[in-house]
Amino acid sequence: MYSFPHLLPPKKAACLVLAAIVSLLLIHAASAEMYVNENVQLTNDSNYNHPSWSPDGEKLVFAYDQAIWSMNADGSGRKKLYDNLAWEGDPVYNHNGSRIYYATESKKAYSARYTSIHVMDADGGNVVKLTESADAKDPVVSPDGTKIAYVSRLAGNYDVWIMDTDGYNNERLTDSQGDESSPSWSPDGSKLVYSLEGAILVQETDSVKPTVLLDNSYDNVEPSFSSDGNMIIFSSDQGGDYDIWIMGADGKGFTMLTSVSSNERAPAWSPDGSKIAYVSNEDGEYNIWIMDLKDQNLQLQEEEEEIVDTEQRQMNPYIDRIRLFANENPRDFIISVLIISFLLVSLIVYSFLRKIR
To answer: What does pTM read for this prediction?
Structure first.
């Protein structure tokens, strides 16, 4: 009988077939949990900052070249709204998109310059100054449009304050020894999340005691709630450069949304939660980008997998490199996992078959 000496023995052939099947199942499971962000660069210049969505999600207002600008959410229709030849920044729409609150540099006679909060119509007209004397910035309008949260040095260091939208009835919310920044309202208007010296805290608006959500050795800044209040987006240098992260509103579970060798800052969730606007210096200068989350199923990592402990990170020095490779080269990563899993499963199955000979 004619034989085929070049063919593998039945047991080895079975080993390779089984290894291939298991490897394909493993790589399918791995790829099912991966998502690749569809990021689009909207501007191509420099010095962009603080993008903020209109309530209908159709426009973005932002700071550019020390002035306040707006554009459509696809990057078209850029328009300068206001420029008084001083610094302007931190623009945000009010609850119905009819007005824009922002911070600007002011000066009183015989005194130093300071930043104050102003409001204007959405087309740049009817400018009104709301705060005086002490530095004030980071305004954000409550969901019902009746209050503004902001940070001010009125009492010394930067604290979170709340005032009516006309500038009256100022009340101090926080009283810490550090500087708070970037307050953001919860969707129901009952609490504010903010950053304090690299930590992220949340506080009821009728309470004097905040709850710490995230406090580690990294700089975690610019937090804001998702539209459903279940997650918080923020920027952090946990991965070396600043990246965009999300965590549960209770501070549990983390997922890094960007992982490139650049800084991603000032994340802003669209009203429907399908997109994130942010600034990145990926091309060397800070420009506005949009991340599309529409077809992605965001999953928060389990708490024990969080990368928030310095000692843990020192024990796992290659975690960030692997994550960076997976995000920047998803296809190569999948192929690499397939090859490695195939080899490992082959060794395991072959060893098992040798024992049962």
So the answer is: 0.75
